[in-house]
């Protein structure tokens, strides 16, 4: 999903990429909750033989069928073999993979968001009534609402990254603050043009 997102993203038309990025982030957040929940549960090996219950009455047909077939007994696993399946449980590997993916998506999205704020989002801010600029394009109301929502999500995501324990780098924090200012500037342009469009 991230490979598709990063290869198909266009800062000049960022709405779809922003939407897909936030979907990916929600999936990663759900995975974090799942891994945390799996740590809380203690693994209890289940004895398969204890799950089997003998039926009290067999019908004539089923008893004939069972008498014709021979069953092979399954090999009993040693304790070492049983523990081999339990060892590690994969949660640390999953956590490490998730953190790596989060770092990669974070790095990519910070660059993409900056490009989108510089080119795609500012260029598509609708103009006030009676004014035209060459780079500005009139936008439908639902597009404006979607863009405002995505800018809000991006700002919330930046705040979350800023407070994340994986984000202790000063240059990253400076980059986040710079992007938040650009988002704020872009929001002001959208709100101003939306207000003038409705005649406020």
UniProtKB/TrEMBL annotation:
It comes from Arabidopsis arenosa (Sand rock-cress). Residues 54-197 form the DUF6857 domain. This is DUF6857 domain-containing protein.
């Amino acid at each position: 999903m991230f490979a598709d997102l990063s290869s198909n993203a266009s800062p000049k038309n960022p709405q779809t990429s922003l939407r897909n990025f936030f979907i990916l982030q929600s999936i990663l957040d759900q995975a974090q909750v799942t891994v945390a929940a799996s740590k809380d549960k203690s693994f209890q090996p289940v004895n398969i033989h204890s799950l089997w219950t003998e039926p009290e009455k067999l019908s004539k047909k089923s008893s004939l069928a069972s008498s014709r077939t021979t069953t092979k007994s399954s090999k009993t696993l040693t304790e070492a073999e049983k523990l081999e399946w339990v060892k590690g449980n994969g949660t640390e590997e999953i956590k490490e993979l998730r953190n790596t993916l989060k770092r990669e998506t974070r790095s990519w999205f910070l660059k993409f968001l900056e490009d989108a704020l510089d080119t795609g989002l500012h260029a598509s801010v609708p103009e006030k009534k009676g004014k035209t600029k060459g780079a500005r394009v009139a936008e439908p109301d639902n597009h404006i609402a979607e863009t405002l929502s995505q800018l809000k999500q991006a700002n919330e995501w930046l705040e979350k990254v800023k407070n994340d324990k994986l984000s202790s780098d000063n240059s990253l924090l400076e980059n986040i603050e710079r992007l938040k200012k650009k988002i704020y500037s872009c929001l002001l342009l959208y709100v101003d043009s939306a207000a003038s469009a409705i005649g406020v």
